[in-house]
Amino acid sequence: MSFPLAWTHRFADLGPDFHTELRPTPLPDPHWVGQSHAVARELGLDDAWMQGDEALQAFTGNAVLPGMRPLASVYSGHQFGHWAGQLGDGRAILLGELPGPSGPLEIQLKGAGLTPYSRMGDGRAVLRSSIREFLCSEAMHALGIPTSRALCITGSPGLVRREEIETAAVVTRVAPSFIRFGHFEHFSHSGQHAQLRILADFVIDHFYPACREAPGNPYAALLEAVSARTAGMVAQWQAVGFCHGVMNTDNMSILGLTIDYGPFQFLDAFVPGHICNHSDTGGRYAYNRQPNIAYWNLFALGQALLPLMDEQQQALDALEPYKALMPAALQRR
Prior knowledge:
The chain has about 325 residues and is of the alpha+beta class. The protein has 11 helices and 12 strands. The strands form 4 sheets. Strands 2, 6, 7, 8, 9 and 10 form a 6-stranded antiparallel beta sheet that branches.
């Protein structure tokens, strides 16, 4: 029996410049791997329904339920310090939003198949990495660190080629928004300043309303607010020895959330120069470099927002508090 869900679609309503609507690609013979009952309760999902086939098929990407509006968003970004151009949700598909305790929460499938932004990828995720993301995002939440959440994992005997052949999985991720620094970079670098303003207004109106009333430029106030949240998040990373591993601008949340759990690790011993990503041959994202890389990424966000400001100094002034906020937050911990 179908369980009625009150889907909304604020991001989808921004229009086709921001995303491509498409259906997930089905996987064969899905099965449940794990669920977060705490996240299910926050979303008001019925326990019995969450154990059933309709939920299994929906959260594998095999069925689009009434009210869903699946899409993949477009963004750009700097990867390992170099401009990478257009990127986007290469294996993530946003289904829409469901009501949460503090407002709408986006529901996103990771590993749900090819999108127009998959580039050379296959749009899939493997069971191993999906379990890692599920466990770590829920653990980070339990530690009080801002993060996306994980509702569930489904598995499939469908095969995926990585370094070796592995089985496929889909992890359902949950966050107030998955908008990244790279979304702003995309519209700024492509000269689409009208869309840049629409996106910035969307973020201010829904997530940072105080910036609208702040003295001076509201977009500079947004940059300062994002910087403060990012400073607090990175301080918490450093305090628990968390290594993100791939702090590209397209992996940085505009809400100061830990997102995109890939080659992450926790320090087993205090090795400040530890590198957790074997692709990071230069050690750009080593543990002890994370605070400065976060600032570098914020600087890139500031550059992206410059077309909405009156002068460059507004962006520089908005970034300045990070230099004191991050070490002070770390010291408190």
